[in-house]
Specification:
The protein is built from two helices and no strands. It is mainly α. It has a domain of 34 residues. The N and C termini lie far apart (31 Å).
């Protein structure tokens, strides 16, 4: 998480507008259905966030 905090600090200092979503407990393959790391709650939330992002830019 220190890397994430460092990126956020850099973006803030640069005056960049951004959103950052963090899915606690979500491992790298949390959206892959066949993975033991699959997290259905984080998967659905991340998909919803992606669709919202895409609707804002297209």
């Amino acid at each position: 998480m220190s890397d994430v905090a460092a990126i956020a600090l850099d973006l803030n200092e640069a005056g960049v507008s951004y959103d950052m979503e963090i899915y606690g407990g979500g491992l790298h393959s949390f959206t892959k259905w066949s993975s033991s790391d699959y997290n259905p709650d984080a998967d659905l939330q991340s998909w919803s966030e992606l669709l919202e992002f895409l609707s804002e830019i297209f």
